[in-house]
Design goal:
567 residues, alpha+beta, Nuclear Transport Factor 2, Chain: A, Chondroitinase Ac, Chain A, domain 3, 8-stranded antiparallel beta sheet, 7-stranded mixed beta sheet, 8 helices, 33 strands
Length: 567
């Protein structure tokens, strides 16, 4: 609210207070304690100055408007004459009313439709005497209202209001009301305020993208589906990988079953969502919003939502990588009880495309098809600038991995150059054409991670302390207890900043395991490490809930490392 409006409101309050004080001072009999009405009576024969009469009728006018905002008939009706009539044009609830129907219809509809109401006048009201003890008060009034059934639909009623107020038996009462109202968007009366449609379009889109991103992150089914209504329907159709089934999934439990199949079938997934126009131009998902006092609806369309899914060990088609293009239309409604948008109906139409036909440049893959050549594609990462001389440590977090670079860690090259300041990265990689490790028997690769120094992945760099002695950089992996993951160091390939191509298994790495599922080890060179698992176990444990236990001890065990390790 700007300073001008505040000044107007303060002025009005002063006038109302003056009116009340004047009425009290001039009355010859106590004001009825059961009514908030203002008295303008004076001692017999003394008369009442016109100024006090005008102040009194102004006070009645504002009490009437305020009573509407309070949403209580007892704060409105005492200011109306029994012969009161009202002519309401425009919004809300147009019609002609008398005292009884104004209460039973207009006030009842207003109070039941809107749960939150604020009002103010845009300028000082005008008061004009039109007869003996009869006055007209006119003002432009703005009511900000939030519908009970759709509280996100903030409405502004801009009304020109004229009230005829007559002083009867020394009491001012409204005998006639004319209301001409129109609705304005909040952006029209509050400078810089965005439109309600734009605000809610963003909220609806965020709800939709939560589902898409959660599918790529392979969150638990209940998390992926948390914004679906309990009676929602998910239609899955088109070409799907063999581990997923097309069909109509009705109800939240069945929808969660589909997402459970998704989580089980894929060990790793990546996605982006967009719309492709007929000319091939890519734009964000399209959102349309319908707002009205009874409900709010939204439609989100993303006709080119792309998922890359790496099949989990033991699932049909392993170790395939599927490139799925999905045409998605989602219908949402705003649930005022839960105070959030919910998906009520969604259709996902899948099409499988050859991986080599999709460069995935929109999400930074840039990876062609590699045939039978081993390859690792960077899909996620975090980078910090290390200053070894600063005496501080550096923490990086990517997925279920956390790395802590100890204070005083330098990067030494094979030619003897030792860097005290450098960019250190932790990256996760998707595996292409990576066979099972030489041992243990039955283990299979799940994904790969690596350290980078200034964008380089190479065994010619060693992490050392200030004296040039090897300094391991620990990595924590948070898994479910009993996962029994391990890793192998991979050497012999080349890295172009996005893809590591070629190479082979070098040796098995050494890990310490804690009973809560945490794995800990330390590496002294920026090279790839292929994580291996005896079976697919998708449970993800939050690092924040596990870190303290892993750092403070608890039961632990270790694997044996082969000779030549970089740990």
């Amino acid at each position: 609210m700007n300073a001008k409006t505040i000044g107007i409101i303060v002025g009005v309050v002063v006038i109302v207070i003056a009116a009340v004080v004047a009425a009290i001072m001039l009355t010859t009999k106590p004001m009825a304690t059961t009514s908030p009405m203002l008295s303008v009576s004076a001692a017999p024969g003394s008369g009442v100055p016109e100024l006090y009469k005008e102040d009194s009728v102004l006070g009645v006018f504002f009490n009437f408007l305020d009573g509407i905002a309070i949403e209580s008939p007892s704060d409105v009706l005492p200011f109306l004459s029994s012969s009161f009539t009202a002519q309401i044009s425009g919004v809300p609830f147009p019609g002609t009313y008398n005292y009884q129907t104004f209460n039973s219809t207009w006030l009842s509809n207003f109070f039941s439709t809107y749960e939150t109401v604020y009002f103010y006048t845009t300028a000082l009201p005008t008061v004009m005497k039109v007869g003996n003890d009869t006055f007209q008060v006119s003002a432009v009034v703005q009511y900000f209202v939030a519908p009970t059934n759709d509280p996100i639909y903030l409405q502004v009623f801009n009304a020109s209001v004229t009230a005829t107020i007559r002083i009867v038996n020394e009491t001012p009462l409204i005998t006639q009301l004319t209301w001409i109202g129109n609705e304005l968007p909040p952006s029209a009366v509050i400078a810089g305020y965005p439109s309600q449609h734009a605000l809610e379009a963003n909220e609806a889109l965020e709800t939709f993208l939560w589902q898409i991103n959660s599918m790529a992150a392979e969150f638990p089914p209940s998390t992926i589906a948390q914004y679906f209504a309990s009676s929602a329907t998910l239609n899955v159709e088109g070409q799907l990988p063999p581990g997923l089934k097309a069909g109509i999934y009705s109800g939240l439990s069945n929808i969660e079953n589909f997402f459970n199949s998704w989580d089980t079938y894929f060990i790793f997934a990546a996605t982006y969502s967009q719309n492709l126009l007929p000319n091939g131009t890519a734009i964000p998902p399209m959102v349309s919003i319908t707002l009205n006092p009874s409900e709010a609806e939204a439609t989100v369309m993303a006709n080119e939502t792309v998922f890359l899914g790496w099949v989990a060990p033991g699932e049909p088609g392993y170790p395939a990588l599927y490139d799925m293009h999905v045409d998605i239309v989602a219908y949402l409604m705003y649930n005022s009880t839960a105070a959030m948008w919910q998906i009520t109906n969604e259709t996902m139409d899948f099409t499988l495309v050859p991986l080599e036909s999709d460069t995935m440049s929109e999400i930074g893959f840039g990876a062609p098809y590699y045939g039978n050549t081993p390859a690792f594609v960077v899909v996620a990462g975090e980078t910090v600038t290390v200053n070894a001389a600063s005496g501080q440590s550096y923490t990086l977090q990517v997925g279920n991995m956390k790395v802590v670079v100890p204070p005083g860690t330098y990067a030494e090259f094979s030619n003897g150059t030792m860097l005290s300041t450098y960019n250190f990265s932790l990256v996760l990689m998707a595996d292409y054409n990576i066979p099972p490790p030489p041992y243990p028997s039955g283990y299979v690769p799940i994904y790969t991670f690596a350290y980078e120094v200034n964008g380089l992945i190479t065994p010619t760099i060693t992490f050392v302390n200030v004296n040039g002695k090897p300094q391991g950089i620990p990595v924590y992996i948070y898994t479910a207890p009993g996962n029994n993951w391990t890793s192998w160091t991979w050497l012999g390939g080349t890295f172009n900043g996005t893809v590591y191509i070629g190479g082979k298994y070098a040796f098995m790495d050494h890990w310490t395991y804690f009973s809560n599922g945490t794995m800990v080890t330390a590496f002294i060179k920026p090279v790839p490490w292929v994580l291996e698992s005896p079976q697919y176990m998708p449970t993800y444990i939050s690092p924040s809930s596990m870190m303290s236990n892993s750092m403070t001890g608890g039961s632990s065990s270790s694997t044996s490392s082969s000779s030549g390790g970089y740990g």
